[in-house]
Amino acid sequence: MNYKKITGVLVVAWLLSPVFAVGAELNAGDKFSENLRSGGTGPEVVVIPGGFFTLGGGSARQQGLGVVRIEYPLAFGATEVTVGQYRQFLTASRSGNLDKLPTGNDNLPMSGVSWDEAEAYVTWLSREAGHAYRLPSASEWEYAARARTTSLYHWGDKVGENNANCLNCKSAFVDSLSPVGSFKPNSWGLYDMHGNVWEWTKDCIDSNAAPPPNGMPKLFGNCNSRELRGGSAKSDAWSIRSGARGFSMRSQQNSDVGFRVVRDIAE
Questions:
Q1: Is residue 64 in some structural domain?
Q2: CA-CA distance, 45 to 4, in Å (whole number)?
């Protein structure tokens, strides 16, 4: 797999709103999953608070890539989409090859899916739930991963032991995927934002331009390649930082790449 490390560790600044009302029923911190028309429920999502940050994260000695403001209601997947959830999609939509799914633990993150297959899943999920689901932008992903922090990882600047699933994370999982939720979540209740599987985002690749400052995806440049975030079980500790980025061709089905969903919330 052809991952690219984008260098430069940058400072993050935050301005966070208090818990806010989302529509008439949801508040920041609320968790929910929605009933699907074909049966069962969708992935659990968490409503996250608004605020802003400087893209990149880390050292104040580095030049920032620009302030990004997340000033709209947003619910983020609590975990990566699992094998069981993806099996539900293939069964209900009668699309794809069920035989290619791994057998055994349905709580493992779904991996080996292309960007286009991830897009097909969120399109199906939106129709099933009656609300808009999608892949996150790269900026939204980093914002959610940090959860108010300015450190390299949501737990601090040292990778430590048993905080995530990566090559030198000193966990019980060695070069293999771990069931979602195997490690402590960040302060916003999001699991596995570091390691386990790389996660597809909506963004196209353009090394000469920063993402939009309003949190929206970068939809210009090379859109045959899409940005990845979070690192995987096959990544070293440096590659699972909150600000680390990778990329892959949208058609590739890499064994250590999965995704999580975002649910838009109308104000």
A1: yes
A2: 29
Cα distances (Å, whole numbers) of residue 213 to 97, 202, 217, 255, 258: 39, 15, 10, 32, 26
Asked whether residue 12 is assigned to any structural domain, the reply reads no
In a domain, 231, yes or no: yes
Which stretch of 48-52, 97-101, 141-145, 233-237 has the lowest confidence by average pLDDT? Answer: 97-101
Q: Of 6, 54, 180, 163, nearest to 106 (Cα)?
A: 180
Side-chain-facing half-sphere of 217: CA atoms under 13 Å: 20
Model confidence band, residue 57 (pLDDT cutoffs 50, 70, 90) = low
Rg of the chain on CA atoms, in Å: 17
Whether 136 has a pLDDT exceeding 90, the answer reads yes
Q: Where does residue 158 rank: exposed (0-12), middle (13-18), buried (19+ CB within 10 A)?
A: exposed
The domain spanning residue 222 has which CATH number? Answer: 3.90.1580.10
* Domain annotation covers residue 8: no
Judge residue 112's burial from the number of C-beta atoms within 10 Å of its C-beta, 0-12 exposed, 13-18 middle, 19 or more buried.
middle
Quick one: pLDDT at residue 54? Answer: 78
Q: pLDDT digit string (tens) for 197-231?
A: 999 999 999 988 888 999 999 999 999 999 999 99
- Tokens encoding 228: 């990845």
- Report how many domains make up the chain: 1
Mean pLDDT (whole number) for 128-157: 95
* pTM assigned to the model: 0.89
Instruction: Residue 142: give the domain boundaries.
Output: 21-264
CA-to-CA distance for 137 and 11, rounded, in angstroms? 20
CA distances from 83 to 80, 101, 123, 195, 215 (A): 10, 7, 17, 17, 29
Beta-carbon-side half-sphere exposure of residue 207 (alpha carbons within 13 Å): 9
Q: Report the pLDDT averaged over residues 187-194.
A: 98
